[in-house]
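User: Quick sanity check before I run a bigger batch. Here is a single chain. Can you write out its predicted 3D structure?
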Amino acid sequence: MTTQLSDTELIATLQARAKVFSFNFSIFSGFCYSELEAENAKLLSQLADCRCHEMEKKLHIPDEKGRESKKGNRKSEEKIEKMPGYNTRFMSHHSKRYVALKVTYFGKRFYGFASEAQMEPTVESELFKAFEKTRLLVGDKKESQYSRCGRTDKGVSSVGQVIALFLRSNLKISATNNGNSGVVLDEQHEGEIDYVGVLNRVLPNDIRIMGWCPAPVDFHARFSCLSREYKYFFWKENLNIPAIEVAGNKLVGEHDFRNFCKMDAANVHNYRRCITLFEISSTDVRYNDNQLWVIKIRGSAFLWHQVRCMVAVLFMVGKGLESPNVIDMLLDTSRILRKPQYTMASEVPLVLQSCEFDNIKFMCSSDAGEALRVHLVNECQIYQLQAAIFHEALLNCVPLSNDQSLLPFQGSKKKVSHVPLMSRPTEPSYEERRAKLNTIA
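Assistant: Done. Predicted structure follows.
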């Protein structure tokens, strides 16, 4: 009667067999190459499978209430990080499927989304750490056929970013998939890994996976996107909302937006984009007599810093510093060849709201969905508590004296005068930038 080996014992056995086999392989490399290679692949596949199951057990340790405890979660993460010998090379022998993931993140502490940034952390780098911790990554980043929909800048948040890549799958490879190197092509999701739940257990609190969807292997998160929608939140204060609405509606349609972006003449040569929706509305959030409003902008694609540049000019209109007609002038690139110099709107209130695709319907298990809601409610309450503390500090400020003689002398603040956009210094035109690049080259 054979004894059942534990996963740990099986891993040790397989590692020992693999080492012995590697030694024999080096000696007999000239003999029976194909048979030895097949045996090696089989061992690697078994080893990867054992490690994946062992890792999943570590991530699914419930607390007394049946939910994951934060303390246990941290311990399991430490154990996962310390597991020896993990290499994505092992995962290449495991079945995989192409998956689209919907991602939300609070951008305040990140140096943008893309990991190509010179500074850390980025949202993307945190995501790939989670893929590696959970043993979901198949091969390296290049082999995973990774793509992202939007490349948000430092400080920008999202509740609807979309990425796509190959991830490990629990499903068996059907006979029709034999020519696809272990790729699961079926749309079946029963019995599949709970990607949302597994990843959210190891991600930092300011990043969450909202849903997943099987995607065709020719899907690309950027180029398959039909439209993107942004929201920009702001306090009304003394802004003229009707004037902003009139000016904003002038942006709708297909235009050359080179005067509403940060120009990248080395890589971008077409500055025509189509805005399909502009809306401005109030929210139910108030602070004292001030109300929070939001601008919603939807388009097929956007240029670098385009939304923040458009909002900056709209705010000038809302303050009465510019006429709504300034939008028409800036869109007329036959007359205004060079962008006037102006400061973009802040990145903090900007949110990538959604990305639209054909035949991509995100889903989430009931357990993962409930855990996600609990987490987001908890984060909201934390920020409300912080706001209450700041408000309490405001109430406890030293009162201002009515007797001006008791105050230290302060020189009168000089009011900064507004220079009309059409009278400001300008940036180099696209043609001038290209000519400079050609000279350098």
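The first strand starts at residue 96 and ends at 105.

User: Great, the batch can go ahead then.
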